[in-house]
Amino acid sequence: MTNRRTQRTRNTRQSLTASGWLKPQRWQISKKEAAEALRMPVNRIVKVYPKQHQVIVVYLNKKGQKCSSFFSYRLFARWQQEAIAAIASCRNQQILSPLEVIVQYDLEHFKYPVAIADAIWEALLNHIRQVIREQRLSLACA
Fold first, then answer.
1. How far lies 19's CA from each of 23, 31, 76, 98, 129, in Å?
2. Is 33 helix (H, G, I), strand (E, B) or coil?
């Protein structure tokens, strides 16, 4: 028999996608976004196919031949924007605490560009401080 705390912790040991916080397969990743993430000219991007956990990008190599490859959504600026928006949507500690565990798990278990990981982590820490501050103020006013 597991207690509630163990069960809750186990349920949050998932990625941002597996937990449902981010649904990148629904995003319309543009050729421009793919070009920026892959650091190549936009005219080399042929097609972008969103999948559940990765995005397939068809692009032209330097010889002009079509190639395709799977890429992590975590390379894209959209991932950072959506992760930070998910964090900002948490209005209290009861919602934010499980997300904190999920974000930490995701950052530890998946490869991120350093700047994106840092921005997400900083947004999380700042939002935790803000929620705690707001909670203190509302208790003081009650």
1. 9, 27, 19, 10, 23
2. helix
**Each residue's pLDDT tens digit, 87-103:** 999 999 999 999 999 99
Whether residue 78 contacts residue 33, with contact meaning beta carbons closer than 8 Å, is answered with yes
Outline where DSSP puts E strands in 16-65: 45-50, 54-60
Q: Strand, helix or coil at 51?
A: coil
One-character DSSP codes across 71-92: EEGGGSHHHHHHHHHHHHT--S
CA distance 40 to 34: 8
Q: How far is CA 82 from CA 23, 73, 79, 123, 129, in A?
A: 9, 11, 5, 12, 20
Please write the tens of the pLDDT for every residue from 41-87: 999 999 999 998 899 999 999 999 999 999 999 999 999 999 999 99
Q: Is the dihedral of CA 3, 89, 142, 125 positive or negative?
A: positive
